[in-house]
Amino acid sequence: MVSLSSPYDSGESSVSDTMFSKGTYKYTFNNLKNPGALYFITIYYGNNQFYEFNTCSIGIPQGEHIRIDLNFTKYIKNNISYNNLVRWLDHLDAAYDSYYNLVGAKPNNGDTINIVSSDEDIGYMWVYPNTSTIYWNEDYIADGLKQINKYDDWHFGALHEIGHLFDLDDIWTFDSEFFANFKMAYVFYERDGEFRVMIDNKIVTKYSDVVNFYYSGSGGSYTKTIGADPMKYSNDGLTYMFLNGIEKFGSWYAIKGAFNYFIDVGKQSDSPVPIESFLSIVSYFTPNSNQFSYAFSKYYGNQYQFVKQYLDKMTGLRNRSNVIIN
To answer: What is the pTM of this model?
Structure first.
């Protein structure tokens, strides 16, 4: 059998079941009080013989929905404290719950999302559709964790990638980058004043700050792209158009209705749903006197027609298999 004991607390110990045959066995010791600290492991075998050695607990907690699958010594030990890592996982779990409230279903039937390191040079973070894994470029992990540790940052990149995973069957996503940011905005809306996220080199805590970022703060913001002359497309600009449209003549309730609709109906389609179809479904969940599709297209006029033509063209070129999403 195997036992584990702590040099800090004589009452903290654990003993495995007795094994009566040869083989390879895995033992997991949960709820350790001193993550990252030194523990003593003793292996007992026949005739009261034993072998004793030291080990360090890995000190990596797991959230309800999110798991950090990173090397403790290489990435975590000197970059983020155990308590702050727990705090971040709590934030990601809260964001996951908000995504679920909006979309109405969970990626991969609710399987735990793993955040893992990667040595591929694809981007900062990325996911593959219909999976439960977020890949984090190993060159950026240490600085990212230090930022989370210092500022209690919920981390824009991780939230964005969770948003991608909530695209689910990937049918209604006429622009996956737009939908990731749009859904993430709902997290900030539902938790207005509670979240903390680093945007444009400063921590923001208000949903209105996020809306303003998409209006004029980002490089691809509305005033610099779709709302500029000449117009050019940007998913950040489109994100603002929808957020502004919700404020002026819509509601997140209607957006929820549309997402839930596509859970059951949209997956029956063989091709991505165009923007006008998505708008019409949003309209279905708005009062008859306030049709979102009509109001949205009329309010934005030439900008909407420009976006529609661009997205129709891109939909025709889109390959929906083996897509890497950054």
So the answer is: 0.83
